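Hi L.,

You mentioned the student needs an example of a multi-chain input paired with its predicted structure. This one should do, with 921 residues in total across all chains.
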Amino acid sequence: MNDYNAIVIGGGHNGLVTAAYLAKVGRRVLLLEQRGVLGGAAATEAVFPGCRVDTGAVDASLFADEIVRDLFLKMAGLHFVEGKVAVFAPQPDGRSLTLYPDVHKTAQEIARLGHPQDAQKYPAFVQQVNHLTAVLQTMMRTPPPDLHTLSLSDLTAWGKVALQTRRLGGREMMALLRILPMPVAEYLDTWFQSAALQGAIGAAGITGSYLGPMGGGTTLMLLYQASGGFGRSRFVLGGMGQLAQALAGAARQNGAEIRLHTAVARILLNEENAAIGVRLADGTDILADAVLSSLDARRTFFHLVGAQHLEPRFMRQVRAIRYRGSTARVNLLLNGLPQFNGQESAAQLSGHIRIAPSLTYVEKAYDAAKYGRFSPQPYLNATISTLADPTLAPTGQHLMHITMQYAPYHLRDGNWESERERLGDHTIATLAQYAPNLPALIANRQVITPLDWEQQYGLTEGSIMHGQMGLDQLLVLRPVPGWSQYRTPIANLYLCGAGAHPGGGVTGIPGYLAARELLRQKAGV
Amino acid sequence: MPVPTPFHGRTAVLCESYDWRSWAGYLAVSVYEPSHEREYYAIRNSAAAIDVSPLFKYEISGPEAARLVDRIITRDVTKCRVGQVMYTPWCDEDGKLIDDGTVARLGENLFRLTAAEPNLRWFTDVGYGLEAQVRDVSQELAALSVQGPNSRAILKQVLTGVDLDGLGYFRLAQGEVAGVPVTVTRTGYTGDLGYELWIRPSAAELLWDALFAVGAGYGLMPAGMVALDIARIEAGLLLIEVDYKSAHHALIEAQKSSPYELGLGWAVALDGADFIGRRALRAEKARGSEWAFVGLEVDWLSLEKLFAQVGLPPQVAGRASRTAVPLYKNGRQIGQATSHTFSPILKKQIAIGQVRRTYAAPGTPLEIEITVEHVRQRARAVVVQTPFYNPPHKKA
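Structure written out for the whole complex:
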């Protein structure tokens, strides 16, 4: 008998969810994380002395509530902080637009900015988005069907999605079909005139994407990002890494073993090309009945399995996955709060601060990336975690996390080693156009480029979504066509990370569905 | 439009019939003379030079070259020593034939593969992740096949630095012609004593001239595809897109064939290292193949009778036919003959093809469709072992 029923590779939030669920039903689970910290791309790290910095994801509004309940995460120390503000969008003309969780308060704000027609439409827009995301939520929680076998369980599960779609009524059903593949810029054009409003809402449609808002399928990403509730922002007390800590606590409580600083060199295969365990970087072999990788597909199959063990048709599929990271991160330690133009209270900064004065602005930011350069006028999404939890930094100081798009992994000129600090300067300079006092407040800074995502966090080409979330890489096509049910051509090897359905973002759903699939497959083990 | 091969300067002037065809995009002579008969008999009785330059050639090198070749082919390459050549099929992930050719081991980590079709992408993708390089050397090598009982005697006078008497069947050696390096492999597509010569294209005509300067006295003739086609059927050798369809071109599953279904089970090393298609072939071996490859001899009296009914002596085409015809057992179609020809040396009408497994035992009487004066008839035939023609000097 093997020492473990399951080895989970990678201690990101999805790997931890998988480990916790498997441990909960009594499986002997070992989770291996190569870094010294859990959370992967949703970790809180001691980047600056005396601070706990969210290096990756910052918003937990997508995290599935049922996982919180199933794993008793609140008992394990998970506490969410709901943002009072969804988006604060300073404008080049010195004014600002603030979106609140409350629809009517937001409508008033839009009217105040001089767009009474948009204000009038806003509640109906939010209603449509909520209708559509309700269906999307079900889709995200339903493993894609195996189109070759079309089993009864697949049909039943997707029958529910179909029924739910039907229940939207004829108009909304057709709207869903029409809207999902649309460019977010065009979708919002059908609703609003205000460029500021379009930018503040629509920029979510390019999250982690190597597409501009005029690219097809970006509306789907807008809805995906709104699937935790439109107009919501939610943070984790103690930083995002606290979610990983809570998951780890739940897993350990049920007997799972978690090892940090333990890199996996490769996945061990038997003569029949089935996974039988892992070999660690130090040469130790650990055997298990199943191996679950929360790493992206390319990293799992090319680095840990080895392309020479894959059939060419599968190898070609993995090779063809579009990763194309486009996101950089600048983390700042500030000696005080920045003052943005058009900002009236500190509370306005408690959600997402978004520099996207229009979708044309964002599209132009993308133009540069198309040609291998980072955006001269980038789209920025910043959060100040110390407003949700002041203990994250020494008293009086604040932590600001700025996600910058676009920073293409493949640079036409130069490399990310030499461009890193220039990108940092550039990001700060852009933000300073809206918050002139910002540069003077900076006590420390960290810049994470797409290359850093790849080298330190293991994200292929720096893709924070584990592969682009385009229409061609979702549902039955994720991670590759024919293998959307967490299984892989390597027997006993499963994918449980964001490369699998439904995809990226801190949802926990890939990890949950992968654990469920493994238990379904290996009910007897 | 087909392009000339490196031997074109010589073959073109000899091709009196002007009967050319396109072979892999190259101009290939079908027959040099108005009739192919002398060319055929040269293969069997003296010697023939056949321009086989249109073959696709790939060089595989690097520290893991052997591993890559092993992953491509169904045979066990660890059993192929340096200086050895292997005939082998290769398959897709489902164990269906993609192509077949030869693997020559030029060095510990250096192989040359011949193929009937372009395979660069396939070989490269099979090798993804391995420390091995695949290079298409098709245009860097001219190839001339010298086949027939006199081939060795001729080559002994043309090539230097090679011990041809010591060169065994499916072995290779390096020699020279007039100072130009030539690789000699004791291989061919005729089932006769024969060699294939691999040389840089700029020296192709030099090689040709050297051969014919000596070969005239040995009855050496240039031979085209028509004569070769008869010889290869007599030898029971497969032709892609005629006797099987490449899995890469098949439109439906039923068009694909496994090595077991083409009489190549002997070339499948299930117990060696993993290769593409092994899992599927293991499963097929366990459950039994649906089809089997057979050789057939058509009953001459039966043919005579069918033709006599309309007042004709038996009419058999002088050339090999590449059009498949149905095979019957008890009035039910149980397979098809994919290549058939009258064998001038055996004086028999012969065919190769595929039948349902249960009808594949040698001695099984079957019926083959034959069209007599536009009417479809059935002649008696019997399953026989291949090769039909297997002279002792082939391996001597």
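You could point out the following to them. Chain A has 18 helices and 18 strands. The first strand of chain A starts at residue 4 and ends at 9.

Best wishes,
N.
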